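In response to the reviewer comment on reproducibility (Comment 2.3), we provide here a single inverse folding case reported in full, input and output, so that an independent group could reproduce the run without further information from us. The structure tokens appear first.
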């Protein structure tokens, strides 16, 4: 059996460990552009390919390999198909890391057997041997990770969705389709938590065969340290998911109100001669930049922005 690890970054290295254990007799080849500029040229010669999220599922060479009969999977797909216990998958355009972290911290405070993994920086695939029937894995899932999966988490969380990564996806429709993988394979016994104020979040939730649970921050009292109405929504979703696992609102509020936020997300940096500087460099599209600016409604704001164009519409920022 010939197996390719397509992309050899953090996830690719973790995938290699998994592959060596699961397929000890296979011939394993690492394909990475840093090793070979023509790394995609021979995909048809493999039986199984593990694709890293940074390489689009829609890449023409990958599509040709699939047509040729090659099975293309990923560390995320292998994890979802092999995980014991309960997987909580969290997606959305922004707010994934904050919401994922809050769910994890609340469940940990409630003494659950809980793990944190996914797009937040830790591949879940090598958690598989540790999991038991009462384990919970909170998994942050990007559109890249959701492309090509064959199983959805039993509990899906869909935050607000709006245009992003249009340098990677050919259009917004394909981006939404990738996000929809989080509910596409759910059964009637599964759940999806979603944000009713966001049309795309609502539309994705409707694709689920499971129970659909809308979550609003309006009736959830909290005293957040982190700024922004969007973070109130993220916190309310985290508390709703924790409630499903039997965690009392008292524990959820205790964790939420102490949470000081993640790096690069409207984080106070310094006050210089009365001017407050905030680092919001994780805000990488116009909508999230607008959300950050709206977090200071009564202050004069100076925005320093830059980065790489992702074929997004900047009119909302204007």
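Designed residues, in position order:
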């Amino acid at each position: 059996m010939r197996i390719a690890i397509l992309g050899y970054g953090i996830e690719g290295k973790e995938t290699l460990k998994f592959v060596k254990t699961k397929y000890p007799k296979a011939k394993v080849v690492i394909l990475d552009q840093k090793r070979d500029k023509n790394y995609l040229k021979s995909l048809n010669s493999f039986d199984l390919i593990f694709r890293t999220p940074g390489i689009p599922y829609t890449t023409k060479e990958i599509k040709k390999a699939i047509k040729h009969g090659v099975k293309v999977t990923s560390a995320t797909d292998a994890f979802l198909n092999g995980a014991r216990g309960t997987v909580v998958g969290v997606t959305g355009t922004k707010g994934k890391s904050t919401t994922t972290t809050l769910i994890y911290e609340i469940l940990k405070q409630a003494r659950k057997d809980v793990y944190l993994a996914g797009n937040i920086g830790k591949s879940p695939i090598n958690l598989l041997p540790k999991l038991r029937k009462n384990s919970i894995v909170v998994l942050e899932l990007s559109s890249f990770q959701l492309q090509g999966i064959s199983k959805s988490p039993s509990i899906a969380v869909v935050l607000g969705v709006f245009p992003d990564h249009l340098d990677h996806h050919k259009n917004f429709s394909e981006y939404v389709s990738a996000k929809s993988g989080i509910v596409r394979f759910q059964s009637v016994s599964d759940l999806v938590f979603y944000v009713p104020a966001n049309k795309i979040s609502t539309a994705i939730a409707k694709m689920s065969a499971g129970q659909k649970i809308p979550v609003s921050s309006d009736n959830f009292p909290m005293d957040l340290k982190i700024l922004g109405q969007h973070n109130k929504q993220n916190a309310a979703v985290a508390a709703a998911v924790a409630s499903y696992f039997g965690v009392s609102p008292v524990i959820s509020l205790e964790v939420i109100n102490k949470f000081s936020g993640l790096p690069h997300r409207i984080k106070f940096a310094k006050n210089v001669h009365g001017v407050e500087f905030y680092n919001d460099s994780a805000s990488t599209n116009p909508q999230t930049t607008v959300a950050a600016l709206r977090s200071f409604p009564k202050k004069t704001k100076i925005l320093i922005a830059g980065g790489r164009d992702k074929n997004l519409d900047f009119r909302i920022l204007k």
